[in-house]
Design brief:
The structure is a homodimer. By secondary structure, chain A is mainly alpha-helical. Chain A folds into two domains: about 50 residues, Homeodomain-like (Arc Repressor Mutant, subunit A), CATH 1.10.10; about 140 residues, Tetracycline Repressor, domain 2 (Orthogonal Bundle). In chain A, about 80% of the residues lie in helices and about 0% in strands. Chain A is built from nine helices and no strands. Chain A is elongated, with a radius of gyration of 19 Å. Chain A binds a DNA duplex through α2 and α3.
Chain lengths: ~200, ~200
DNA sequence: TGTTAAAAAATGAACGATTATTCATATTAA
DNA sequence: TTAATATGAATAATCGTTCATTTTTTAACA
């Protein structure tokens, strides 16, 4: 019973991921999601109270996965600079491997504060903090200048990667390969923050 | 006649800027915009064919202004690194001075490809190219390493600033002042791209 | 193992609320 | 007086959500 429920709500989220990515949240119809999931419209309302809830659940599920993966990747390196480069690479790789999810996070996450009044995306903050923690570690080890403010640097670094992904998500063909982009972007920050 | 039309459509755009920023495009009602502009609902349809057109016109108008301002600011410096720092400062200042516009660009511009199938935001591309050109100039003058790919670096730099603005736009209080953020972010890139 | 009744899950047509857009009419300017 | 603008009530289409009904699952019992 418990098992089956999870199975079906995951199926709905998978369908919603596809439809939200294609049409955007507002233009996506419940009936389309239902059709994509191979169920009746009404069934969705057994698993989710409102349309909004599907998007929230989608964020939670995807961000949990992303966060878990990235934590594991970072733990494979000990040097802060190597961690930064690995973060860049896997962030971009993630986007590439999950275009639909990426597009939703890119586009709909931005609006989240608008249509979901009190939804605080804690998982996203934690994701940012992965970068902040690496920078902090670098400062403590004397590798990164004491002038660097982690709260700014973590956002700048994430923003740089994020803009690169947006470019990929919205354009048809990828102009630069992942390795190159990850190496370039992380090198700006690594060299720029060095002690 | 020409004069009056422009005057009124600017009034509508100003009202729309306020309402779109507060509610987001989809939740903003034409009737609200009309009320804010002090005109009747139907009047909007004399100046704009659809709701979408208001948003497109809004982008065009704001981006044109932003682009013009930034071009002027950049031209005040001759050193590429100084240009980069000035770009960072005025970009962030612009956000601060035009919160409503910033919020719309942050949030709604992201969706533009979704609801306006064939609207290519050329002004935005030009804005990015301002950065690309500075980097190119820096390479030619031997200040910036030949390894730096302007197409990646311009997006990374813009993304870094953009993420910082998003943080400001979506949060109540500003944690870091503009000068600090601009100096930090531009220093990562300047030092990171140096020859 | 097969039967069956109660519970749970699923269905999809119908409802009702919302809102972009239109247009017959009124107002203002030329 | 005529043309251009503006009005806002009415229209029409859209869709999220509900719920009476049907189907499937569960588990109790012979």
């Amino acid at each position: 019973m418990r098992h089956k429920n999870n199975e079906k709500s995951r199926k709905i989220i998978a369908a919603a991921t596809k439809i939200f990515a294609k049409k955007g949240f507002y233009k996506a119809k419940i009936s389309e999601i239902a059709k994509e999931a191979g169920i009746a419209d009404g069934t969705i309302y057994i698993y989710f109270k409102h349309k909004d809830d599907i998007l929230i659940a989608l964020f939670e599920e995807k961000m949990k996965e992303v966060l878990g993966n990235m934590k594991k990747q970072i733990s494979l390196e000990s040097d802060p600079f190597a961690k930064i480069e690995r973060f860049a690479y896997f962030h971009l790789k993630l986007i590439e491997d999950n275009k639909d999810m990426a597009e939703i996070i890119q586009v709909e996450l931005r609006q989240s504060s608008k249509f979901m009044k009190n939804y605080q995306n804690k998982k996203f903050a934690q994701y940012l903090d992965l970068i902040g923690d690496i920078i902090q570690e670098g400062k403590e080890k004397g590798l990164i200048s004491q002038d660097i403010i982690p709260g700014i640097a973590k956002r700048a670094f994430f923003g740089a990667l994020d803009e690169m992904s947006r470019f990929w998500v919205l354009s048809k063909r990828r102009k630069y390969d992942i390795e190159t982009a990850a190496r370039q972007i992380s090198s700006y920050f690594i060299n720029g923050m060095k002690n």
